[in-house]
From TrEMBL:
Domain of life: Eukaryota
Family according to the record: Belongs to the multicopper oxidase family.
Signal peptide: 1-22
UniProt GO MF annotations: copper ion binding; oxidoreductase activity
SUPFAM superfamilies the record matches: Cupredoxins
Protein name per UniProt: Plastocyanin-like domain-containing protein
The keyword Signal is assigned to this record: yes
Amino acid sequence: MPSRGCSCWLLSLALLCSLAAAKEQYHEFVIRETTVKRLCKSHNIMTVNGQFPGPTLEINEGDSLIINLINRGRYNMTLHWHGVRQMRTGWSDGPEYVTQCPVRPGQSYRYRFTVAAQEGTLWWHAHSSWLRATVYGALLIRPRDGTSYPFDVQPTRELAPILLDPSLLINLNSGAKLKHAHAAYAKLMLKACSMLNIPQS
Ligand SMILES: *[C@@H]1O[C@H](CO)[C@@H](O)[C@H](O)[C@H]1NC(C)=O
């Protein structure tokens, strides 16, 4: 009996350790032309995996990401992980002709990096030509399992990140429509603020 209790204890310890351990996530980001409908109009745009905005990445501090960029689009492409400190992984940073050559159509490139010592809501986006207008998404970095946010008041709830969809503003050349889009966006922000109890000035 005592040996059984001991192995149970060891098992739970191992489980606890594995829960807190850094993880590795692998994602395929397939760039392709996709038809999306916005404001009753269809647009052919570049997307990741056919999604616009692109996929949300959710990790814990200390985790590693491996993103396999597969370019099935018509344009050169690179991806930048905005705000991520690339510690000794500069070749995964993304700006074309700065840390890498662009990934040509039909080619692929593997970004591999560890997100360490930072938490919060960041984003990723294309870093080649104007393609960031549609190729982007959120990157959520939560504290490591078992640790809390580095401020006294802990969040009571989470909201999905709000990414301003540029197609709302592109193609809206009439002043009235633009004003309408701005008003709708302001309303959305106010709603988010009241849900989060952020004072509105
Ligand atoms: C695409 O990238 C390659 C290098 O990877 C470069 O030689 C070529 O000129 C680029 N094409 C365009 C249209 O920018």
